[in-house]
Amino acid sequence: MSQDVPDHATGDAGRRAVAQVVPDAESLRAALDATGYLTDTGLTTALFLALRLPQPLLLEGEPGVGKTEAARAVAAVLGSPLIRLQCYDGLDAAEALYEWNYPRQLLSIRLAETHGTALAEADLFTDAFLLRRPVLAALTHPGPTPAVLLIDEIDRADDDFEAFLLEVLAEASVTIPEIGTVRATMAPIVVLTSNRTRDLHDALKRRCLYHWIDYPDTDRVVEIVRRRVPGTPHSLAADVAAAVRRLRTLEMQKRPGIAESIDWISALTLLGVERLNPAAADRTLGALVKYREDHELVREHGMAWLVGTSDG
To answer: 115, 119, 245, 268 — which has fewest CB within 10 A?
Structure first.
């Protein structure tokens, strides 16, 4: 573990490594495309700035539009680990940072007693007994390129955790009472995602780049799903993209995103469907629509409306 390492030394090395991989925005776009993640100019620019400034990037948008996949794709481009912190109500600092391996400490105590060996308290609080949680793991990643720290669904965490996270990211360090200050070995690339279930504090937003990811248009959906489900006929992908667009005009509990569209295509392809029709849509609706109320709403409009063979 790196303790009290000057920020500029490892920071410069990380920036140089990233610059070699993504010298400009177009290079990043091509590299993301090679991983199978398609971006537009706005998202490409936001990701490029997050990598090269560097600065945390807050991605907001409806569930299923590809926010999490953006972080995965960036990690793949850099050849870095993706370290994910899934946020939820009640998440605290210990679960994000570290904890001590108490069973291993207890075992060491018993072994020392068995062998009659003196064991000081400091011997129990070393790196060997430290369990790194996502934030600390990202801060101590040795390189050669920075880790990508994905703080997923930050809007699900509470205000106290958001304030804690702001401090840690601003300093790129954390203090462990038994060890001391641990500074970033190589400051991570930080991507935060939010589904906007609540508003985030202005203090956090001020320190982040921001980009809203909207639902892609029909042509982009066709291209994405055909990449993710190889062998999908263009006609079937176009049918699904059009049907999903119709669904998004309804007041649903959960409008389908790209992930659900891919699931639906996979199910239809597995069943040998080449063109979407009311019967096939009815059989596979559970791959696309995940709430009972939404099922009822879709059925009220009719499968013919969904597949575009009737105005409903």
So the answer is: 115
